[in-house]
Amino acid sequence: MSAQADVQLKDFSTLFSLKGKVAVVTGGSRGLGLHAASGLLQAGCSKIFITSRKPAACTEACSALNALGCPGTAISIPADLSKPGEVERLVAEVEKHTDKVDILFANAGATWGAPFDEHPEEAFQKVMDLNVKSVFVCSQKFAPLLRAAGTRLDPSRIVITASIAGIGIGTLGPHATFGYSASKAAVLHLARNLAAELGPQNILTTSIAPGFFPTKMASGLMEMTGGTKALAEANPNRRLGVPEDIAGTVVYLCSRAGSHVNGGHIVLDGGAVVANSKL
């Protein structure tokens, strides 16, 4: 093979395109979910379904996304995925608009901080239910629509939001996040199991493990653990996460560029886990 042939890439101009794809983003009304939805829409998705617990927040998020002027459309479908039957209702509502789903970004999540001796059992259960069980149920109930969209050469995608708290040690002390850390470790391994099960069905499963991003859910904990400036300076790259970090990674994983990634995870923390694990 000639050197000229070696340097030619197949249709590089569309390598990161999501033109015509249909996506569902759980926890999509704010924070990381909204960042990802913005990237997916701007990369060419024709429909993006935004779901979260609060209807007003979903409506506001869709209005902001549709104001971007992209050809695709953001559609609000509020749902509380922690409640029985809500995932099934979400799927039924999505099916009113489409007969396939190319991308499921399973991002809905919750946390709880409390000292070890005072950590409520019901809070631990609530976090595990939303952060782990709802991810499994969403993957299971959306699987028929994902199978309808996926092919061997163009698989559907499930991308799950985990956390570096599931890789290293999470927050300890007076604001300890035992349930959150355990749930994020669990969901990383759930993604590996889903990858092995669903890969032959033309559905790829990956996960992302973000560090600190200035989002509403993380802001309180960030202030309790030193504040944004101190946390940024402690990172090897001397900054916290920005929206483009999430959007770019999710678009990569969902596009042709990421079509050989299955069962793995991408750490988005500027090197925080590496720095904290050094001897």
TrEMBL record:
Keywords: NADP, Oxidoreductase. It holds the Pfam family adh_short_C2. The keyword NADP applies. GO terms for molecular function: oxidoreductase activity. Belongs to the short-chain dehydrogenases/reductases (SDR) family. This is Uncharacterized protein. It comes from Meristemomyces frigidus. The lineage of its organism: Eukaryota, Fungi, Dikarya, Ascomycota, Pezizomycotina.
